[in-house]
Design brief:
The protein is α/β, with parallel strands linked by helices and about 140 residues long. Helices cover about 45% and strands about 15% of the residues. The chain is built from six helices and four strands. A four-stranded mixed sheet has the order 3-2-1-4, sandwiched between helices. β2 and β3 form a beta hairpin. The longest helix has 19 residues.
Length: about 140
């Protein structure tokens, strides 16, 4: 098995998908997680590539968020679409990053992702609250590369 397959168990993945669904109940924002083995690029640059590859830039309000992880490279990044970046301060994602990093440093990868996802959902709710016309525009599943 590759490190990507070993990174999270099937149960861990189900709990992470559940966290995405919970986080998205109060926001029109869309959250995805992508895991791959490694990257030769800066993590944020690779996250941007994956973001576009997953067509996350096609959401109606441009409010998609990708949590990108390169397992072997031991790095991650959070990338938000232009609709978010037009409305928030530069340090908007710091608390999400810190929540993930705190758990990752302890080897708690599942909990780090869950904490980060829920934190991102809370932050998105402020600028992109859920309303009756909202549709889930992107899959909640974890993508792997």
């Amino acid at each position: 098995m590759s490190k990507v397959e070993d990174f999270l168990s099937k149960t861990d993945e189900e709990e992470i998908v559940n966290a995405i669904q919970i986080a998205e109940t109060n926001t029109s924002g869309e959250i995805r997680v992508h895991i791959e083995k490694n990257t030769s690029l800066a993590p944020l640059e690779r996250a941007k590539e994956v973001f576009h590859f997953l067509k996350m830039d096609l959401t109606k309000q441009q409010n998609g968020v990708l949590i990108y992880i390169a397992v072997e490279s031991k790095t991650f990044a959070i990338y938000g679409d232009s609709g978010i970046n037009r409305l928030v301060l530069d340090n908007f994602w710091n608390s999400t990053r810190d929540a993930i990093l705190k758990q990752f440093k302890q080897g708690n990868f599942k909990q780090g992702l869950i904490d980060g996802i829920l934190q991102a959902g809370n932050q998105l709710q402020e600028h992109f609250p859920w309303d009756n016309s909202d549709k889930n525009e992107l899959p909640d599943t974890i993508s792997k590369g």
